[in-house]
Structures are given as structure tokens and as C-alpha cells.
């Protein structure tokens, strides 16, 4: 079996969706570079690339809220990834389990699982 | 309640992840413009913007495999959307239920739900 060919964009990023492997909750969307993906596969922990800080980061390096990788999937045209993860704590820096804790109308529908003041 | 401010990128796109509201399966990732999102909210059916064809499209317009919207969520920093949908047929043009039907190693893990030759 050979790796699926990936279509990084012109800035060499691919969006990666992290999903809780147990609950199925979609946790976050971030970007990876080839190196971030390699690091993810080598270590078994989700790594991303911060476009604003311009650096590779391990999810949870500061907060302890790591994402142990269960599986990495790729979509039909190779330009998006899906990380199936075991999430420690909450995925969102706001304290919510998922970054998608609001509807687009502004209603809060997610669950807060930690107090960000205790973590950051 | 007011709409959450959205951070469209410099090309005026936001990535949108479609998730099956019942099974929790992540179906696809595509992009929306402000107009595509408006159309989605007005009609109750998922619309996206094709960056390669440079046009607004309704998911399922050709195949019949529409996505009825149950909820649209937005992430913490307003630069990604989550469509919770009721998927008719399969989301992927390959016949799989989800576009994420392979691991990055090339193993097929998804379920094929229709024959693309019958649809396109």
C-alpha cells in the first residue's frame, strides 16, 4: 500500500479536520504542512502548522490537551485531511470541547469542559 | 442574537466541513463564499463555491445527493464552518458515503453507497 498523493495548496498547506474518534464530535479545523503531517504520523500526536505564527505546533504542547491519533484519512481529491483523535481535555482554547461551539446565529450549543484561566 | 462575525480569507472563502447529523460521519470539506453561505441558510440546502470551476453550486444539483441543513456552526475564530446535514445518497462523487474513505496510507475504510456510473 502506498501513501495517497496529497495536493498541498500554493502556500503548501492542507486543511485538517480533527474529529473525536469516540464521540464523533468535530473538534477543530487547522492546517498542516508536509512536515506537520510527518510529525503527526511519526509521533502519533496531532501536529499542525500555525499560519499566523508561522510555526509547526503540537496540539496541547501548552495546555496539555493533546490529540492522540487513531487514524489519518484523506479525501477523494487529496486536498483535505481528517484526524481521528482521542482528545485530552478540550480542543478549544476557550474551554469548549469543540471549537464549533456556536451556531452561525450566535447560539452557544457546545459544552465547556475546562476553565481557560486555569490552563493558559 | 446576532450572527457571528466570519473571517473570510483573502480570496473570500471559508472552508466548510459537512458532517452527517445522524451518524456523525464527516462527509466532505469544501469552500463557501458569503453568497454560498447565504444561499445555504435561505434554502436549507448546502451550497458551496467551487474554486476550480469558479462558481456557486448546490450540492446534489446534478446527482440528487443533496444535503439538507440541520444546523450551521462556526468555530471560535470565525474562519471555519460546520454544516450538520441530512445527506441523501452519498456525499462523494466516487460513490462513497464520505469523501474521507481512505487512510493516508491508501487503505480503503469507507463504505460505497452508490455506483457513480449510474449517477453521473
TrEMBL record, chains A, B:
<dbReference type="GO" id="GO:0004636">
    <property type="term" value="F:phosphoribosyl-ATP diphosphatase activity"/>
</dbReference>
<dbReference type="InterPro" id="IPR026660">
    <property type="entry name" value="PRA-CH"/>
</dbReference>
<comment type="subunit">
    <text>Homodimer.</text>
</comment>
<feature type="domain" description="Phosphoribosyl-AMP cyclohydrolase">
    <location>
        <begin position="28"/>
        <end position="101"/>
    </location>
</feature>
<dbReference type="InterPro" id="IPR002496">
    <property type="entry name" value="PRib_AMP_CycHydrolase_dom"/>
</dbReference>
<feature type="binding site">
    <location>
        <position position="79"/>
    </location>
    <ligand>
        <name>Mg(2+)</name>
    </ligand>
</feature>
<keyword id="KW-0963">Cytoplasm</keyword>
<feature type="binding site">
    <location>
        <position position="77"/>
    </location>
    <ligand>
        <name>Mg(2+)</name>
    </ligand>
</feature>
<dbReference type="GO" id="GO:0000287">
    <property type="term" value="F:magnesium ion binding"/>
</dbReference>
<feature type="binding site">
    <location>
        <position position="75"/>
    </location>
    <ligand>
        <name>Mg(2+)</name>
    </ligand>
</feature>
<keyword id="KW-0460">Magnesium</keyword>
<dbReference type="GO" id="GO:0005737">
    <property type="term" value="C:cytoplasm"/>
</dbReference>
<keyword id="KW-0028">Amino-acid biosynthesis</keyword>
<dbReference type="Pfam" id="PF01502">
    <property type="entry name" value="PRA-CH"/>
</dbReference>
<comment type="pathway">
    <text>Amino-acid biosynthesis; L-histidine biosynthesis; L-histidine from 5-phospho-alpha-D-ribose 1-diphosphate: step 3/9.</text>
</comment>
<keyword id="KW-0862">Zinc</keyword>
<feature type="binding site">
    <location>
        <position position="92"/>
    </location>
    <ligand>
        <name>Zn(2+)</name>
    </ligand>
</feature>
<feature type="binding site">
    <location>
        <position position="99"/>
    </location>
    <ligand>
        <name>Zn(2+)</name>
    </ligand>
</feature>
<dbReference type="GO" id="GO:0004635">
    <property type="term" value="F:phosphoribosyl-AMP cyclohydrolase activity"/>
</dbReference>
<dbReference type="GO" id="GO:0000105">
    <property type="term" value="P:L-histidine biosynthetic process"/>
</dbReference>
<comment type="similarity">
    <text>Belongs to the PRA-CH family.</text>
</comment>
<dbReference type="InterPro" id="IPR038019">
    <property type="entry name" value="PRib_AMP_CycHydrolase_sf"/>
</dbReference>
<keyword id="KW-0368">Histidine biosynthesis</keyword>
<keyword id="KW-0378">Hydrolase</keyword>
<protein>
    <recommendedName>
        <fullName>Phosphoribosyl-AMP cyclohydrolase</fullName>
        <ecNumber>3.5.4.19</ecNumber>
    </recommendedName>
</protein>
<comment type="function">
    <text>Catalyzes the hydrolysis of the adenine ring of phosphoribosyl-AMP.</text>
</comment>
<feature type="binding site">
    <location>
        <position position="76"/>
    </location>
    <ligand>
        <name>Zn(2+)</name>
    </ligand>
</feature>
<dbReference type="GO" id="GO:0008270">
    <property type="term" value="F:zinc ion binding"/>
</dbReference>
<keyword id="KW-0479">Metal-binding</keyword>
Amino acid at each position: 500500500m502506498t501513501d495517497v498523493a496529497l495536493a498541498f495548496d500554493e502556500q503548501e498547506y492542507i486543511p485538517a479536520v480533527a474529529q473525536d474518534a469516540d464521540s464523533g464530535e468535530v473538534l477543530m479545523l487547522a492546517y498542516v504542512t508536509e512536515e506537520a503531517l510527518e510529525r503527526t504520523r511519526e509521533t502519533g500526536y496531532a501536529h499542525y502548522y500555525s499560519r499566523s505564527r508561522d510555526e509547526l505546533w503540537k496540539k496541547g504542547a501548552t495546555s496539555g490537551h493533546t490529540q492522540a491519533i487513531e487514524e489519518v484519512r484523506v479525501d477523494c481529491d487529496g486536498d483535505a485531511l481528517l484526524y481521528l483523535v482521542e482528545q485530552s481535555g478540550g480542543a478549544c482554547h476557550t474551554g469548549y470541547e469543540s471549537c464549533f461551539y456556536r451556531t452561525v446565529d450566535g447560539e452557544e450549543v457546545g459544552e465547556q469542559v475546562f476553565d481557560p484561566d486555569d490552563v493558559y
